[in-house]
Structure to design on (64 residues):
């Protein structure tokens, strides 16, 4: 789906329509610019894609 028009409002999965060949990817990586590295950023990839910039990362804030 390109937007949330027609999305379920009860928290259930959106099962109809859309492109089942793609999955949502959240955030960016070390090789992206600051605008993409936000957790609110969304893009899409095909399931099974591999890239060294995609994955889980932990951030720890400084003291104070």
């Amino acid at each position: 789906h390109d937007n949330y028009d027609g999305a379920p409002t009860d928290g259930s999965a959106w099962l109809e329509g859309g492109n089942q060949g793609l999955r949502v990817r959240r955030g960016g990586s070390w090789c992206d610019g600051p605008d993409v590295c936000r957790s609110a950023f969304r893009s899409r990839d095909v399931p099974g894609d591999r890239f060294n910039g995609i994955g889980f990362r932990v951030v720890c804030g400084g003291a104070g």
